[in-house]
Write a structure and sequence with these properties.
mainly beta, Jelly Rolls, four-stranded antiparallel sheet
């Protein structure tokens, strides 16, 4: 399933450890609870969430992502 986010909009992922976020268009910023590492994904890039708790995925520009 594809999720479209407008610039500045965010998606809250709860207990998503092991899930993969893929950017299909645009750019998104990802931060995970209790992690010092933030990631920016551009089009075609993916990241596997590593932590339980809350992860935030925020659109830097209009973006299209999937979560699997």
């Amino acid at each position: 399933m594809t999720i479209n986010l407008q610039r500045g909009q965010f998606l809250r992922v709860v207990d998503g450890a092991g899930s993969t976020v893929t950017a299909h268009g645009g750019a998104v910023w990802i931060t995970e609870e209790n992690s010092a590492r933030d990631v920016v994904l551009g089009e075609g890039r993916s990241m596997r969430l590593r932590r339980s708790g809350v992860a935030l995925v925020e659109a830097f520009s209009d973006a299209s992502i999937s979560l699997s």
